[in-house]
Amino acid sequence: MSTTSAAAGEVGQAAGGNGGKVPLSDRARSERRLGWWLAGPAFVVMLLVTAYPILQAFYESLFRFRLTDPDAREFTWLNNYWVVLTDSVWWRAVGVTVLITVITVAVEAVLGFALALVMHRALTTLRPILRTAILVPYAIITVVSAFAWFYAFDINSGFVNSWFGWLPGISENTNWFGEFSTSVFVIIASEIWKTTPFISLLLLAGLAQVPEDLQEAAKVDGATWWQRLYKVTIPNMKAAIMVALLFRTLDAFRIFDNVFIMTQGANNTEVVSFLAYRQTISRLEIGLGSAVSVLLFLCVVLISFLFIKLFKVDLASARGER
Amino acid sequence: MRKGTVRVAAAAVLLAGLAACGSDDSTPTLTWYINPDNGGQVELARRCTEAADGAYRIQTSLLPREASAQREQLARRLAANDSSIDIISLDPPFIPELAEAGFLAEIPDDVAEAVTENVVQGAIDGATWRDELVAVPFWANTQLLWYRRSVAEAAGLDPENEPVTWQQIIEAAQSQDKYLGVQGIRAEALTVWINALVTSAGGEIIDNPEAPADQVQLGLDTDAGRAAAQIIEDIARNGLGGPGLANEDENASMLLFQGDRGSFMVNWPFVWAATLAGVEAGNLDQSLVDDIGWALYPAVAEGEESRPPYGGISLGIGAFSEHTDLAIEAAQCIVQPDNQAYYMVTNGNPASNTEAYDDPEVQETFPMADLIRESLEAAAPRPQTPYYNEVSTGLQNTWHPPSSVTPDSSPEEATTLITEVLKGERLL
């Protein structure tokens, strides 16, 4: 097991090697071929279940097409994209989605890391119980958790107002789903509660990769707990942290259930997925809805690209392959 | 040679299997897509299956709880020519959309005549598209003004004998420091309220509901639209809808009305059965029931008649059904007056056929039965357009939260948004 910096160095070398067209050895070539044979079937299935619907959505997005009026279907080039991108509703939804994504991922990263440390350091006897307890929210179906949070905060049926009435700003008449800030607060809180376990699980895997001898060497050198965390632990699990952030960001950007259950988009809490749902499923405007979906897909691609290129996330090293 | 034998054998087995399936029971099975209720439609399916005496059998299939989700499922299935849909319990605002798309089978003239006999006008209007009856009226809903006798008396109002206006109940709630039960949630309930206000003020949300999408003219930016916005503004700005107005649905209104600060409420008749059930369960006091009165929906201007909301369920016949004739026959059986009376008494959903109201059991269970019938005759359906979803959602997006509604801007904003959405220039 090498450290991350060494791994990055190796990757750099490998990349440089390919770029310089150094002839591959027979063994490397046959390993590569075997790799394709092994991964090929999965790759084909992936293409079938992801590439095909994406292409179909792109094709549909070029039409003005309403499901209840198929005869009026009309090819309109990129007009649907123009309608979406010039509409303030779209940009507001993107803004709300980014806000929710940034806050949830930031809070979850800190909380998730703390929970991962707790799980990592817990006594062997406590560990299984602790891990199970931390994972419970993640095991709950999102719609169910959304309903639970909705009913907890709802002004008619909720207990939050009566339990926390002593806090400033909360009274029995606080209507959490009556305005933007409070609605988004509940949506974000529910999202964090639900998915922090996921991020902490990924980080726990990263923690397990940090070599114990490095920690001990630092200890011998007199490093404090904080110094060891910043200088040894975190740099050594950077790849795991980045992969966890990437997965959660992609996930958070596609948020739908919480908004759908709690506000139905009221008080300007519409997010991008909800817009796609409304155009495609409610309005049955397949063309316009497909355009929103394709744009959502492009946003997700952009996020992945930024993470991989800018932050140099290396998925392979996070799995401990290098 | 051997391969051929295997094939023949396999085909024989398959055919035998199919034959076995078919010969077991040759009675055609009709599938009735029902909205969730208290089991009444399942019982009606059983009764009509029995009455058909082997001509057909009706099985039910449950649709989602929300009317909008029911429409979504039905539209997608029907767009895919689903032949399993024989009879559909349809919410009236969605009838034009399905009819215009050719998803509903035609109803023969003689049947249309028979199923509209003694039926309240609101229900006939709601089941009609382009002057043709396209669905069979089943049950019909309308909102009444429910009030606490003690509060009305203290405020000097007698809604039972003298029709009241919105202004009067707003002032009464204000003077008595009480809440009004109205539906301010961003959902269909809000559209129901806005439509009732606009039509009661003598207007229409859409002037030409049968027009193609890009030619639809809205009637909101008018005196009627502004009068409607004024009422919502008065209630929201003065906090008369209670702290939860922005997410108040019919059920929340009922809870508010049953509480200490309840005064007047516009709501469907289910609240009566629900309140009685609350008393029976010991959650509510009998004195509350004794204090509840009912009257016609409030008017917008004094001396003018109100147009109460219209809802309910009509039965559509799936255009792709393999047994259209039988489905029409079954629908006629389902809507028999005695079946409607049974449904009203057991499930609390008012009949569309006036004959059902003469049933002694109906009269006993619903002391306000005659008022419901009267309200149904005056009721105004929501805009009957194939683009109802856009109109309704556009209204909800611009008239919510209720505290943001003003007569100067809201009608205009809604008109602009809905017109542009229908022209395909805006997202919703």
Automatic annotation (TrEMBL), chain A:
Regions of compositional bias (Low complexity) in chain numbering: 1-13
Record keywords, A-Z: Cell membrane, Membrane, Transmembrane, Transmembrane helix, Transport
PROSITE patterns attached to this UniProt entry: ABC_TM1
One example of a Gene Ontology biological process annotation: transmembrane transport
SUPFAM superfamilies: MetI-like
Coiled coil stretches, renumbered: none
Domain ABC transmembrane type-1: 94-307
Region (Disordered): 1-24
Chief location: membrane
Topological category with respect to the lipid bilayer: Multi-pass membrane protein
Residues that span the membrane, as ranges: 34-55, 89-117, 129-153, 286-308
Keyword Membrane among record annotations: yes
Entry's Gene Ontology cellular component terms: plasma membrane
Compartments it resides in: Cell membrane
Family: Belongs to the binding-protein-dependent transport system permease family.
Designated name of the protein: Sugar ABC transporter permease
Species for this entry: Jiangella rhizosphaerae
Automatic annotation (TrEMBL), chain B:
GO CC annotations, alphabetized: ATP-binding cassette (ABC) transporter complex, substrate-binding subunit-containing
GO MF annotation list: maltose binding
Pfam family, one: SBP_bac_1
PROSITE patterns: PROKAR_LIPOPROTEIN
Any one GO biological process: maltodextrin transmembrane transport
Keyword Transmembrane appears in the UniProt entry: no
SUPFAM superfamilies to which the protein is assigned, alphabetical: Periplasmic binding protein-like II
Keywords: Signal, Transport
Region (Disordered): 392-413
Cleavable signal peptide: 1-22
Similarity comment: Belongs to the bacterial solute-binding protein 1 family.
Protein name (record): Extracellular solute-binding protein
Species per Swiss-Prot/TrEMBL record: Jiangella rhizosphaerae
